[in-house]
Amino acid sequence: MQQTVIHKSNRLPMLGWGLCIVIATGCQHQPPAERPAVTLPVYSQGDADNGKKQYEEACLKCHKLQPGNNEKGPQLLRIYGAKSALLTDYQYTDALKNSNMTWTAENLDKYIADPKQTIAGTRMRSDPIADAKVRQDIIAYISTLR
Fold first, then answer.
1. pTM for the whole structure
2. What are the residue boundaries of the Cytochrome c domain, all occurrences included (predicted)?
3. What's the first-to-final CA gap in the chain, in angstroms?
4. Which pLDDT value is given to residue 127?
């Protein structure tokens, strides 16, 4: 059996190539981050069927419902009961990252009613939804997305 001997002068280039391989392997596309399963009970103070329609009209253009499908805003699958700024495949504002908010029905209601008042520095641009019934319906729908 023949033994391969590497001359000292050849070790540095080999280390460089090895480092490139390690970096390239570490930079491969990772699967999209997902939120953990929802543990809060379904929000029953709204009409989820109407909430779905309202969501599709007011929210879906920016907030998709599939992991890894972030548009202008992060996807919202399993947002109900989750901590804010949890997805690793979306670039949140520092304001949202530092809010330490949990998306309960109460916090979602405040945020949907007036995002910029609830979290100063948020990027969310949509017009606030003033109608409390519409907000309740949207939250009821969001709470079913498990």
1. 0.76
2. 46-146
3. 60
4. 80
12 is a domain residue: no
**Structural domain range at position 96:** 48-143
Low-confidence ranges of the chain (pLDDT < 70): 1-32, 126
Which residue shows structure tokens 């949509």? 126
Beta-ladder partners of 70: 63
Residue by residue, DSSP assigns 67-123 as TT-BSSS---TT-TTPBTT--TTS---HHHHTT--B--HHHHHHHHH-HHHHSTT--
pLDDT of residue 31: 45
What CATH number corresponds to the domain at position 126? 1.10.760.10
> Is residue 14 classed exposed, middle or buried when 0-12, 13-18 and 19+ CB atoms within 10 A define those classes?
exposed
Cα 51 from Cα 142, distance rounded (Å)? 8
Phi and psi of 47, rounded to 5°?
Answer: -100, 105
Domain assignment present for 38: no
